[in-house]
What does this fold into?
Amino acid sequence: MGDHQPTVYEWAGGEEAWHRLTEVFYKKVVEDDLLKPLFEHMQPDHPKHVAMMLGEVFGGPAVYTEEFGGYPRLVRRHRNRDIQPAQRARWVELMLESADETGLPQDAEFRAAFVSYIEFGSRRAMANSAPGAVPGERETLKLWGWGEARPGGE
Ligand code: HEM
It folds into this structure.
């Protein structure tokens, strides 16, 4: 590994891997009875936007922030959707299933970092989606790294 510790984004396989993940994920989402109602009017570019946003969070290029509206857009998109706990849980379940199906790394360190952000982000999305919620004010996305378990650990 030399001196360079890969980002979680790189370790996953870079841009192509994140796009593969969200393509497969949203195919499942629109066929799921619990999630369908929330995503019926999803824009065709939605999977691409989420791939860019996740990539940026995990240390990839800041394309979502620089070209697509970044954190303020993310918050706007979840506002008043009134996401229910069972819907959040299913969203997480399908995301992890998609990570397996699209061949994202299986090592413990990668999965710990990935799952931890998916828990964090999905809970924030649910909280920000509650009618009348006042989301925290940030300029940029919250970035996520390896946490306690670094890649290639014993
Ligand atoms: C880590 C968790 C999550 C991430 C990273 C995420 C990411 C995003 C992003 C980036 C957008 C905006 C896309 C754009 O700019 O066009 C978005 C929109 C949206 N998200 Fe999430 N989200 C998360 C969790 C959830 C959950 C748990 C739900 C519901 C169960 C949800 C429902 C939606 C809906 C309904 C939209 C709007 C879709 C539309 O355009 O009609 N999100 N999400």
